Structures are given as structure tokens and as C-alpha cells.
């Protein structure tokens, strides 16, 4: 894991972000390289400490895939023509390489994630008296969900790998933003009223969130 420097046209100042893949330094697009090098040098100790503190990723066996916090066997067969899940095993063609498998796995997770969120959202909408304008499934590096000012809610597809109650926490979190578009005391109070185990879900994501990666590892 290393420091990745990312230039943004709209960013006005440099800032570090800790991600599952390491550390990102996000900077204004025209910031001179000499200043970037100075920033990295001045923060070298901090960077080293943060990288060392990142939890080690659990290695998912090559013959298993993750869903809702559980691993299931991956069965490759010469007679299989597509990627599918039968509630006990994942299946795919024996001829697929890792790239083909990853793409099919993510596409399947995205489809299932959208269905899951759509089915869970009425539970929170009834309690909150609000409704999302649009629901989308993303694949963000650093955010588990987001709510726009226009009422579009985005949920990270990687949450399909977490236990369902953790995914429900993020869904509840974003729906509460339709009521309180901030992280004020009123927001946290309202969230606790619709999802009681906020602290537990947040702790789980802090400890295990880095392991939620949609790829097969050997």
C-alpha cells in the first residue's frame, strides 16, 4: 500500500485520505510537483504510521466468494454458461479467467444490491415520512453511501459483502439524510430511532470495511 497522488480541478487545497488501498493525497490540479514532494516529505512520519495501522486484509480463498458476511463455494463447470448463485454455491464457466469472474460477480452484486435497497427502503420511508427520488448502486472507494440535495441516494455495492444488518445501517443513514441533510445532533438522534445499533455497525465497518473487496484473491 502506498500514497497515491490524485489531482482534482475543483480542489482548492491538498488533503490526505485513508482508503482501503492505502493513502490518497488529493491536490489542486495545478499544484507544482515540488510542493507535492514537500507535503509528502513533511508528512512522511504520519504516512508511515497510518499505513502501519491499516488492518491486514483477510485473504478470500480462490474457490469461495463473499455475500452478506458469509463465504460460499465457487463451482466452476464446463457445462455452466453464466454466473449464478443457487443459495448454497456460486457457479461460473470453467473457462473464465479472474477478470471475467470479477466482472460477472460485480454485475450480479449490483443487481442484487439494487433489489435489496429497493425492498428495504419502505421500512425507513414509513418511519421517516420521506421518499428517495432515485436509488443508485455505486462502487466508491471511500464512501459507503451518499444522499444528494436532489434526493438521489447511492449505496456502495461492496456493502453486499457485509452482514445484512451493517448494510441496513448505511441504508438507514442515507434515508435519514433526506430529513436532516447534515450530521447534527438531530440527525444522529433520528438515526438511532430507526436503527438502534448505530455504534455496533459503525464499529464493524471501521474494523472490517477494508476487507470488502469485489475480487477473487489467490
Automatic annotation (TrEMBL):
Gene3D superfamilies from the UniProt entry: Metalloproteases ('zincins'), catalytic domain
Residues of the YgjP-like metallopeptidase domain: 13-208
Protein name: YgjP-like metallopeptidase domain-containing protein
Native organism: Exiguobacterium chiriqhucha RW-2
Amino acid at each position: 500500500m502506498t500514497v497515491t497522488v490524485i489531482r482534482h480541478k475543483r480542489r482548492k487545497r491538498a488533503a490526505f485520505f485513508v482508503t482501503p488501498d492505502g493513502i490518497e493525497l488529493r491536490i489542486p490540479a495545478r499544484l507544482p510537483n515540488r510542493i507535492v514532494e514537500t507535503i509528502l516529505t513533511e508528512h512522511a512520519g504520519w504516512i508511515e504510521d497510518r499505513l502501519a495501522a491499516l488492518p491486514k486484509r483477510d485473504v478470500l480463498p480462490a474457490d469461495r466468494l463473499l455475500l452478506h458476511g458469509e463465504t460460499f463455494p465457487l463451482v466452476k463447470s464446463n457445462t455452466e454458461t453464466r454466473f449464478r448463485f443457487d443459495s448454497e454455491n456460486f457457479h461460473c464457466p470453467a473457462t473464465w479467467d479472474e477478470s471475467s469472474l470479477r466482472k460477472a460477480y460485480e454485475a450480479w452484486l449490483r443487481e442484487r444490491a439494487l433489489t435489496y435497497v429497493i425492498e428495504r427502503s419502505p421500512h425507513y420511508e414509513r418511519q421517516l415520512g420521506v421518499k428517495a427520488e432515485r436509488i443508485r448502486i455505486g462502487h466508491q472507494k471511500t464512501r459507503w453511501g451518499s444522499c444528494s440535495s436532489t434526493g438521489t441516494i447511492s449505496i456502495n455495492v461492496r456493502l453486499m459483502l457485509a452482514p445484512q444488518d451493517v448494510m441496513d445501517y448505511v441504508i438507514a443513514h442515507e434515508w435519514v439524510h433526506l430529513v436532516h441533510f447534515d450530521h447534527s445532533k438531530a440527525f444522529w438522534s433520528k438515526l438511532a430511532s430507526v436503527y438502534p445499533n448505530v455504534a455496533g455497525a459503525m464499529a464493524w465497518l471501521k474494523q472490517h470495511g477494508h476487507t470488502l473487496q469485489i475480487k477473487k484473491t489467490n
